[in-house]
Write a structure and sequence with these properties.
single chain, 155 residues, mainly alpha
Length: 155
C-alpha cells in the first residue's frame, strides 16, 4: 500500500470516516439530541488526523467540519440554500485548522491529554460557539440519561 494509489485510497478512507464522524457529532445536538455520540465523533476526528503531517491533516479536519456543519445548520435553508452552504463551508475551515493542530499534538508523549484540551478549548472559543444550536453544554443535557429533561423542550 505504499504506491500513490494506495496512499490515495488510505486518505480517501480517512476523509470518509471524518465526514461520518462530523455527521455523528451533528446528531448529538437538537433535534436528534443523542449526546452519547460526542466522544465517538471526536475520537473519529482524532484517529483520522493522527499520523498525518500537518500539511495534509487539514483535509480530514475539513471533511469533519463539512459533515458537522452541513447537518447541524440544515435549518438555515429557510434563509436560503446559498446562506446555508456559505456558512457551513466557512465554519468548516475552522475544523480544518483543528485537524492540523490534532496531527501536531498527537506526536507528543501525552497526546490524549493535549488533544482533549485543544478540542475542548477550540470548541468553546470557535465559530460554533456563536451558534446557540451547537453549544456543547446543550448537547450534554441528555434526555435519555436525565429523565427530568425528557419532556422539557429546549430551543
Amino acid at each position: 500500500l505504499h504506491t500513490p494509489s494506495g496512499y490515495f485510497l488510505r486518505m480517501l478512507l480517512r476523509v470518509l470516516a471524518a465526514l461520518a464522524s462530523g455527521v455523528a457529532l451533528a446528531l448529538a445536538f437538537e433535534p436528534v439530541a443523542a449526546p452519547v455520540l460526542i466522544p465517538f465523533a471526536i475520537a473519529g476526528l482524532v484517529l483520522c488526523c493522527r499520523g498525518l503531517p500537518m500539511r495534509r491533516a487539514w483535509i480530514p479536519g475539513y471533511a469533519f467540519g463539512l459533515g458537522f456543519q452541513l447537518v447541524l445548520i440544515f435549518w438555515l435553508r429557510a434563509v436560503g440554500v446559498d446562506a446555508w452552504l456559505t456558512v457551513s463551508i466557512a465554519e468548516a475551515f475552522f475544523f480544518a485548522l483543528l485537524g492540523s493542530l490534532t496531527a501536531l499534538l498527537t506526536r507528543h508523549r501525552w497526546w490524549p491529554l493535549w488533544t482533549a484540551a485543544a478540542c475542548r478549548s477550540a470548541w468553546s472559543r470557535g465559530p460554533g460557539n456563536s451558534n446557540r444550536h451547537s453549544c456543547y453544554s446543550r448537547a450534554r443535557r441528555c434526555r435519555v440519561l436525565r429523565p427530568e429533561l425528557r419532556h422539557r423542550r429546549t430551543v
